[in-house]
Amino acid sequence: MDGGTTGGGSDQADAIPKRRFRWTPRRVDLAVFGGFLLVAVWVTSQIWADPAGRVASLYSSDPAQVQFFLAHSVRVVLHGEFPFFTEQFNYPDGVNLMANTAILALGIPMVPVTLLFGPAVTFVVLVTLALAGTASAWYHVLSRHVVSNRLAAVVGGWFCGFSPAMLSHASWHPNIISQFLLPFIVWRVMVITRSTRPYRDGALLALLVTAQAFINEEILLFTAMGCGIFLIAVVVQRPALWSTAWRPLGKAVATCTVIAGALLAYPLYIQFAGPMAYHGLSDAVRDYGNDIAAYLAPGSPTIGGNQRANVNLAPNYSEENAFFGWSLALIAVGIVLWLRREVLVRALAATAGFYAVLSLGERITWWDRELIVGPWEWLVRLPLLDAVVPTRFGMITSVVVAILLALAIERSRTLPLDPRTLRTLTAGGLVLALLPIAPMPLPMTTRPPVPEFITSDRWRAYVGPDQTLVPIPVPSMGNTNGMRWAAATNLDFKMPGGYFLAPRNGNTGDPGRFGGRPSGIGRLLEEVATTGRTPELNDRQRRRSLDELRHWRAAVLVLPVSQPHSEPLRQTVEQLVGPARQELDVWVWDVRALTDRTA
């Protein structure tokens, strides 16, 4: 009986046809999303190896600043701290966080990760998800609303997420590369031009705009301008479209303005009129522009890139906002010429050209040779635009090129070619366009660990709630290790100085600059840290330094034993406040007796 039952079951199993694996649309989407995530992990692999101990090899200041902001999000959630301003650095003046891109829309959802693993891990998680998320979001919108060919959508999403401009910012600016809301904002703007429910669609757009404002306002401004330029270019070609579009567009934009304005009114008031608000960017970055040749060279973090070849083509390696390579640049121009009869393509070309010209900055150059004055010279002083870094306009040009690539692949199916020849030409064109700028792992280098004196909480024996811990050298744009120390404690101590944007001399409403009020002791120690030379200080310098320490309400000065030029720094500080004591891995100066105002 058992044998018969077993045999019958086997026959029955053999009779059931096996299901064949099918690539359903959902499975294709999941595979694409997974592929983008793998590429993002590949790009960030060098920092994933040791998030707390590795940093971008060229500039380490921006990651430290972002980690500080991530720690601030923890304080907002756990302690109910005011989200838009903090005194935890640049004490006692504080820092206007709304004017410094505190990435609250990224930092607050990541609070559990920051608490469990620290802000350094959160930083690399955000970079990875920003690259993959931006590529995936553009793929989703392109595949649903722009093209029917999945390969076209994949290519478009790929270039939006992993263009040289995105790779350039990835080591430093997760707020700038977190563009996963932009395709949905752009699509909602297109929808409201023909909406049958404009008030609902305007409200949805308002929510997207509000969320993006707490990620990065500059990219939001670029997107709004880009949508406006594109729609104007369409209407100029097809004036009849305006008669049907203006009513739903007007209702939706009005709704969006009211709702987003209400949600953002107070944060924007703090940003533009609150304490430590500034008007206009520092002169150090206001004229950042691309060289024309930057659109023909490959980006540094790509297969064909070369940092030395890109010298003077961009403001620095964190702002390579063009760098398509000559093959993609020529192919993009060829696509526009090929599809020039299409209204959509001409409008996209106008948008790309507009942003490419603005990205050149105030002085248009070719291989670092000045040619003419650019239009940005007259726009830079306009409200809102005075807070824009012009080279970043090139990022929108990258998005437009991605859409043009997707459209070209889609339209190629109409060519009178047999399928095999068409596939060969398409593959060859994509290799020629994208292989030279294919992403490589972002270069990283080691950075000093947070001192054990900080991680073991030994500092708590010295610093009270209204006192500061002063890292040596004093934190500034070029010395941000102290900001990482604070971030590692979730900002449990205050400190003077730091890397941020603030009004000159601390006067609210003045033009912006990097750093707070000029500091005599800060400049002195920065010079010693740079040169390694110990100066001979006089009584006047000692008195002024002591006055600054009192102004900061300094409790303890901390110098890591392993700090470069630590011996000259120690000798200099000892001339100011007396002998140091080594505690664990730092030199410590307890200055409470010198700075206590009640003493």
TrEMBL record:
Coiled coil: none
Annotated TM spans: 28-49, 116-139, 151-170, 221-240, 252-272, 323-340, 347-367, 387-409, 421-442
GO molecular function annotations of the record: transferase activity
Keywords per UniProt: Membrane, Transferase, Transmembrane, Transmembrane helix
Keyword Hydrolase on entry: no
Pfam family, one: DUF6311
Membrane among keywords: yes
Domain (DUF6311): residue spans on this chain: 81-380
Protein name: Glycosyl transferase
